[in-house]
UniProtKB/TrEMBL annotation:
Protein name per UniProt: cyclic-guanylate-specific phosphodiesterase
Subcellular location: Cell inner membrane
Residue ranges of domain EAL in the record: 24-278
Amino acid sequence: QAKSAGRNGFCFFDAQMNADTRERLSLELDLRQALVRGEFVLHYQPIVDIHNGRLLAAEALVRWQHPVLGMIAPDRFIRVAEQSGLIVEIGEWVLNEACRQMMLWQAAGLPRFVVSVNLSAVQFRRGNLEALIGSALSRFGLNPSCLELELTESILLQDSAAFIDMLYRLKTLGVKLSIDDFGTGYSNLAYLQRFRVDKLKIDQSFVRTLLGNTQDQAIVTAIIQMAKSLNLLTTAEGIEDDSIRRLLAELGCDQGQGYLFARPLPAQEFMAFAQRTQLPA
Ligand code: C2E
Ligand code: MG
Ligand code: MG
Ligand code: MG
């Protein structure tokens, strides 16, 4: 009896696995076509001074404008893009598009702000990132200090000589580095200095529950203190209400990002946001 149940279980698992594989493969094909057809778009979320709301940066966040399914969030396709290696090409598109948009904003006379893009570990392993970034910056006539690269803590685990060399060369190019979702992964303090990181982005899982949760408060306080002693900036992600913003400001956090200020916006709407917040109060 147990044996037949086991066999059934196995068969079911097998069928399920095939279904998963089929789904992944078809998503992979769709992603490939999406690239060719130009179905990816970037939205930009404001990052502001947590004390006065002044616009400091825009994080470029990719979306897939699917002809039938509509706007698809990155959580639904980035993992498959990474597994298939397609993230290298998608990431290249993101980088170029973000730089092109930054050039347009600067040409339109918006005050200077930083544009940040998310990088996947796969791009470090496969891509010629330094050349890619260097040529995107020069193609659009941008100052490297206007571009920020967001890495996750897991990227820093690739402790290879080639990886360290790449980070060093990116810093030499003049771009900024930040650690995304900070606090959720493995963090080695020595790494932060060795890699000459500029900023820690405190993960939203600590920020959302900050008011009621003394443990999250302790963690966020420690991150901010540590950042200060290492001379790093901090951005809190996922700020949805003003009482949390105020507490973070009191704790000494520098920058904020979240629905309280704005959601990720299409480029046009971002421009309107930038012009609005630029107006004297
Ligand atoms: P992330 O880099 O940590 O980006 C922040 C995410 O938090 C965004 O989700 C943003 O919409 C969301 N968010 C911001 N403020 C709030 C808030 O107040 N409340 C809530 N509930 N959410 C907020 P999004 O755009 O869905 O992106 C999800 C993740 O996908 C990103 O997390 C990033 O890891 C990844 N991603 C996005 N674009 C790219 C890309 O171009 N390349 C790579 N490799 N990954 C990307
Ligand atoms: Mg990010
Ligand atoms: Mg994040
Ligand atoms: Mg995230």
